[in-house]
Amino acid sequence: MDLKLNGKVAIVTGGSKGIGKAIAEALLKEGAKVVISARNADEVEDTAATLRLAGYDVTAVPADMAKKADLEQLVAAALHRYGRIDILVNNAGTIDTFAPIADITLDQWRYIFEVNFFGVVELTNLVIPVMLKEKGGRIINISSENAVQPDPMMGHYNATKAALNNYSKTLSMNYGKDNILVNTVSPAFIRTPLLDNMLDKMAADAGSTREEAARKFLKENRPYQSLGRAGTMEETAGIVAFLASDQASFITGAVFRVDGGSVGTV
Fold first, then answer.
1. Element (H, E) at 40
2. Angle (CA) 132 4 56, round 5°
3. Is the overall model pTM greater than 0.85, yes or no?
4. Other residues' Cβ atoms within 10 Å of the Cβ of residue 195
5. Whole-number mean pLDDT of the chain?
6. Right CATH for 9-190+231-258 from 3.30.479.20, 3.40.50.720, 3.90.78.10, 3.20.20.80
7. CA dihedral in degrees (73, 77, 83, 88; nearest 10)?
């Protein structure tokens, strides 16, 4: 499908690897120019260099979502290089602790909210005036099934994603009249390098294959996931590219689950 993103400029946070990199690639393939950011300067520049070799127009900007100055620099770099921002994909996030909720320290709560939620708010606040000047734009926030189906060992992460879903809906209500459309994509059990490593370890322990380990994990932990496999990063990236395009010009305030049916509620 030709989504006609030629000439559009996108910022993708957490764009150096995993789902963020796949999103950047999907937008580039549709003709967009993309600014990717990540905390690790070497990783984000290496990813940009690889994409440039493929003929794409990519700019790398190191940025920590918990640091306002970094986010200001990210927006300034995008405007300096391209003169506009049409698409913002808030993909960057973190999870650093797996524990019962009462064992998660207040500092751990503060940090994960700084990155997963307040960083999104800060960056969005910087981009909204640009989109207002351009009379429109697309904001796509990457959430998680944990927003509505909490994991008992990830209480602080669950809360950041629930807050993000609510924020996205509220943002869409505020700026729909200005043709700034805001949607959320909620992936789950996606084949990232991190998931592959987990499945490989499970397979080695059980003497099985990665695919068998995936099916066992889903049966035991995600009973509503009916496809019996992990999703691909490209399957997540595809819906993001669609939402960034004019094909989605009457869609705002929605949550799109890319989870194989993992969430057990309507």
1. none
2. 95
3. yes
4. 18
5. 97
6. 3.40.50.720
7. -70
Backbone angles phi, psi at 9, to 5 degrees: -120, 130
Please give the backbone phi and psi of residue 61, each rounded to the nearest 5 degrees, phi first. Answer: -135, 110
125 neighbors 74 (Cβ within 8 angstroms): no
Q: Active-site residue numbers?
A: 157
Measure the N-to-C terminal CA separation of the chain; round to a whole number of Å. 29
* Tokens representing residue 40 in the block: 């690790």
Q: pLDDT digits over 51-73, tens only? A: 999 999 999 999 999 999 999 99
**In degrees rounded to 5, what are phi and psi of residue 28?**
-65, -40
List beta partners, residue 88: 11, 139
Domain boundaries, the chain: 9-190+231-258, 192-229
Residue with tokens 């997963």: 116
Q: Check pLDDT > 80 for residue 173.
A: yes
CB 85 within 8 A of CB 61: no
Q: How far is CA 203 from CA 69, 127, 197, in A?
A: 43, 44, 10
Amino acid letter, residue 198: M
Other C-beta atoms closer than 10 Å to the C-beta of 71 total: 25
